[in-house]
Amino acid sequence: MVKFSKQFEGQLVPEWKEAFVDYRQLKKEIKKIHLLNDQNTNGKKQKGSFPNAIVSSLRKYTCLEHKQREPRVIQVHRKLTDSASSTDLYETELLEQFADTDAAVEFFACLDLQLNKVNQFYRTKEKEFLERGESLKKQMEILTELKMALKQRHTKGPPSQDSKEEDSISGTISCDDESIKDAMDAEQGLENLTEEFDKEAIKFSETPKSGELERSMRMKKEDGKLRSLSGRVINCQGKNLRIHIPLTNPTRTFSAITYLLWDDLVNQSSKKCGPEGNKLHINKKKLHHAEKMIRGAFIELYKGLGYLKTYRNLNMLAFVKILKKFDKALKLADKVEELFVKNFAEDDKRKAMKYLKPSLREESHAVTFFIGLFTGCFVALLVGYVIMAHITGMYRSKSDTMYMETVYPVLSMFSLLFLHFFLYGCNIFMWRKTRINYSFIFELSPTKELKYRDVFLICTTSMTAVVGILFVHLSLVAKGYSYAQVQVIPGLLLALFIVVLLCPFNIIYKSSRYRLLTVLRNIVLSPLYKVVMLDFFMADQLCSQVPMLRDLEYIACYYITGSYKTQDYNYCMKTTYYRDLAYAVSFLPYYWRAMQCARRWFDEGHKSHLVNLGKYVSAMLAAGAKVAYEKEKSVGWLCLVVIMSTAATVYQLYWDFVKDWGLLQFNSKNPWLRDELMLRQKFIYFFSMGLNLVLRLAWLQTVFHYNFGKVDYRVTMLFLAALEVVRRGQWNFYRLENEHLNNAGKFRAVKTVPLPFHEVDEQD
């Protein structure tokens, strides 16, 4: 990595090099401070231990002792150099904390000198460019008026055949008495200057430089005459203006002299202010030269403004960099870094920086490539699987019962799982786009957290493997292979994913996999562990994955009991413990979430956690009633399902909108929403509330039993389960948005880590 000093020297404007801040000199002053600190450190005796050192450093630079803390470290004074100058000068006064440090005093004196130099140069150039800009603006207005006049003359009709001149406009030469007098005074002044030179030339005739001086004065005289000929004052539409084409090359000089001499011969009567002899023709060629000059002036002005912008940015960055170095030399960051390296990294600074300043993992283009590759493979395999299922007659109301009872739950489980994971990737993308600090809220490591591209890669790769293997399985079934021969394939697929999840090697996102297992452990044992944001967020996800958990329960029972060998898919449904376990799985996620609310109430003492607990209790009762109705479809159980589900839905909707999303605030500046919103389009919030309401009513399928035509009812159940996952996906975004705006630590940007040691009063 190139040092800033090299970048600074490579980007500065060479012509203004001396006006830039002397960064090297400031670095030398910083080195003096470092040397002084090292001498003081070596000269003092090492007393106390690590706790004393850290406490003393903190007391020196923080507000642990309010009485001894100064409100400021420096005081900057502004003063004027003199009454005639409007340039401000800045002078820094050090307060008591650094007043006795000679190196710091010298540093700020040098810093003041550089700041005043940069400020004065910038203001001078800024004033110069502003004046040039105003002048060019006036020049452009005159050029525009002349162009319009020439255009109007051209539109009146073509020039006469006798005239061989180009299209031109006539401007009246201003020959009023004052202008003539001014011109005569100028000529008289030039003649007087010449006479004085002639008189003085006699005195200096004997000096060796007299000849050179005489020649220079005569050249100035001739140049003055030439310049007087190269400009003419004309009056165009009530404005006096002078057209001056600089004599930049011999051809232009000769043509200008010829033109002006001819113009003088023709307009000799202008001295008498005659009405017919004072016309000056301005043709297209003159306007073209004037336009070219103005265009070049604009280009140079723009280039100069770019240089001035570079000058400002580089100097500001240099001051920021050098002040950071000063801060590291004297303040708390350097002390903490030193103590950390000494006590926790075995004096290895590189090792310490891995903890203090962890480097972010770079995103690879290979990830994006494989996302596209596996997405294409997944789509192709899915199309092939659908065609094969249609040919074999699967997923219809009278389909193969063995396949739908044993293989379809595998596809349903993985589809719901990775749909949820895909929506989590979409959440990460939206959180990053709206600058929601989800990493801090979830307390994720910045070097190990999953990016949205990583999530998409996992989803596409996994679903390609799932659909590919099930496509092979269905193809074998269609070719006439018995289920006894091919039924082990879905089980191996499930075993493969379990092995990958538990793999102890540092491959396939090990840190994220083990973090997931840790969170699942905390959820299962929720009353025993302190609940953090990631724990109850993950538990909420499980509440939307009850169908997936029930599929997992059945598949585990089917393969663990060996039913796949005998093809007895009803074995698990006949056993008592499986039916009891089905009840448990249906309301277990709500139970875990309720226990988390109870633990948070115990730790924090807020009654709102008890109210939230009631929401999950109502959901448990509704889920239990639904499972009971599926086993015994009676009118009594149906009425209980309707009552419990309606109460739970109203409870959940209120908590979604008011508590989790923070919406429906009637006195808000955004009616029916909240004061602070991350999305600019307010209608999105109302649409999301309506969609959340509709998707919360998916349980009505239990009452109406609607299906999609002749499609198997299991497909309809999968579709409804997917809608609940989609609802949870949009819930996640607004839940974290509200957490980010209102509850994420009240302006905390770093975590508050509890300390192990506490002072105990001796009387206790």
Architecture blueprint of SSEs:
Elements: H1 4-11, H2 23-43, H3 50-61, E1 74-80, E2 88-94, H4 96-99, H5 102-156, E3 168-173, H6 177-203, H7 210-230, E4 231-236, E5 239-244, H8 250-266, E6 279-283, H9 284-330, H10 332-344, H11 349-356, H12 365-392, H13 401-406, H14 408-433, H15 438-442, H16 452-478, H17 483-486, H18 488-502, H19 510-524, H20 533-543, H21 546-560, H22 563-566, H23 571-574, H24 576-604, H25 608-631, H26 635-660, H27 683-696, H28 701-704, H29 713-743
Antiparallel strand pairs: 1-2, 3-4, 3-6, 4-5
Helix pairs in contact: 2-5, 2-9, 3-10, 5-9, 6-7, 9-10, 10-11, 12-16, 14-16, 14-21, 14-29, 19-20, 20-24, 21-24, 24-25, 25-26, 27-29
Transmembrane segments: 366-387, 407-431, 452-476, 488-509, 635-654, 683-704
Pfam families: EXS (PF03124), SPX (PF03105)
Keywords: Membrane, Phosphate transport, Transmembrane, Transmembrane helix, Transport
